[in-house]
Amino acid sequence: GVILPGVLLLSACSGGTQNESAATSADGIQERTIKAGIGNSESHPQGQGMVKFKELLEEKSGGKMKVQNFFDATLGDDLKMTEALQGGLQEVTVPSTSPLVGMIKEFGIYDFPFVFNTEKEAYSVLDGAVGQKLLDKLPEHDLVGLGYWENGFRNLTNSKHPVNTAEDFKGLKIRTMQNEVHLEAFSKLGANPSPMAFSEVFTALESGTVDGQENPLATIKTQKYSEVQDYLSLTKHVYTPFVFLVSKKFWDSLSEEEQKIMSEAAQEAGEYQRALNQEENEKALKILEEEGMKINEVSPEEAEKMKEVIQPVTDEFAKKFGSDLVEEMMSEVEKVRGN
Ligand code: KDG
After folding, report:
1. Is residue 191 domain-shared with residue 310, that is, in the same domain?
2. Which residues line ligand 1 (CB under 6 A)?
3. How many Cβ atoms from other residues are within 10 Å of residue 336's Cβ?
4. ipTM summary value
5. Do both 86 and 231 map to the same domain?
6. Residues 97 and 179 in one domain
7. Domain check: are 206 and 67 in the same one?
8. What is the tally of structural domains in the chain?
9. What are the pLDDT digits (tens) for 174-201?
């Protein structure tokens, strides 16, 4: 609620029943256990971000607010965990924004290929007015968003051949996230996309159900995709944010002080996670090469051609998601680029 710690203290002393005064401590922080889950492994920068979040929250709450982290989709994949938050069965998850688009369509603007060229451009949109507008849509879906972490620029791996040009996508069976923009963009390039939850990807690649998948380098490394994929093409075709979600049911049960330290912990852990992610992506490239992947760059000219092929898809979805919002995002990117 909105009760200040001082007021709480007063009401606990004067007239509060035995139960009320026992439940509300002087600093407005109670003993709590937060179940937090992600799809990535603990060694992934996202996993390390969760470890940092746990440390920070436990420290800020004097050890009262405890975090139990679950990695590797042991609590389910992004969508399942998000639903568990809505039902009040789980407190925290940090999904890619992409699978949420079926629920809140506007998040789909982040799925437009080739919008961002650098992390800095992405941060200015995510941490600015556009990012906040989208977070503001969460409460009506029983979710609260405490900011954006980084999944990052996605690159294509496959078992068939290097992808250098738009034509090279033709006929490739590619796993995508459960997201209509990704599906249609890959179809437009002539690939055969199939949407699939993250935890099923390795097996699908291994069994040949799909030829390829796309993810940031740190994920390609920690998921050991090099064991089942020969080619890594540095397409950087889209930037995926993570969004730090809290169950609204849980959030509304917290005191103002508890909400404050939880926001701070998510924010500070997010800054740490973004920096680590950039470092780990660089390191991963070298490791994947050592593991035998055949790696190719995609020239800016070819990337531009891929973008042109996909453009009709982007235009169609821009209308659906809100042209004003898309324009606001693009002008923010232009501002950063101009500087
Ligand atoms: O922990 C996050 C993962 O569950 C997922 O979001 C990773 O980008 C991802 C994917 O390809 O599903």
Report:
1. yes
2. 38-40, 46, 78, 95-96, 151, 177, 198, 215, 240
3. 17
4. 0.97
5. no
6. no
7. no
8. 2
9. 999 999 999 999 999 999 999 999 999 9
Tell me if residue 313 falls in helix, strand or coil: helix
- Is 11 contained in some domain? no
Tell the residue nearest (CA) to atom 10 of ligand 1: 198
- In sequence order, the 6+-apart residues with CB closer than 8 A to the CB of 258 are 28, 29, 30, 32, 61, 65
9 found inside a domain: no
What pLDDT was estimated at residue 21? Answer: 40
Residue 24: pLDDT band with limits 50, 70, 90: low
From 44, 72, 149, 151, mutation site for ligand 1 pocket: most ligand atoms within 8 A of C-beta: 151
Ligand 1 mutation target, pool 177, 221, 244, most atoms within 8 A of CB: 177
**285-303 confidence digits (pLDDT tens):** 999 999 999 999 999 999 9
CATH code, domain carrying 176 = 3.40.190.170
Question: Are 138 and 273 found together in one domain?
Answer: yes
**Ligand 1 pocket: which of 78, 90, 92, 174 to mutate (most atoms <8 Å of CB)?**
78
DSSP 73: T
CA of 23 to the centre of ligand 1 (A): 38
Token pair listed for 14: 């004067």
For residue 197, which atom of ligand 1 is closest to its CA?
12
pLDDT of residue 23: 52
Range of the domain at 51: 30-151+241-282
**Of all protein residues, whose CA lies closest to atom 4 belonging to ligand 1?**
39
Say if residue 130 is in the same domain as residue 162: no
Which atom of ligand 1 lies closest to the CA of 77? 4
SS3 of 126-188: HCCHHHHHHHCCCHHHCEEEEEEEEEEECEEEECCCCCCCHHHHCCCEEEECCCHHHHHHHHH
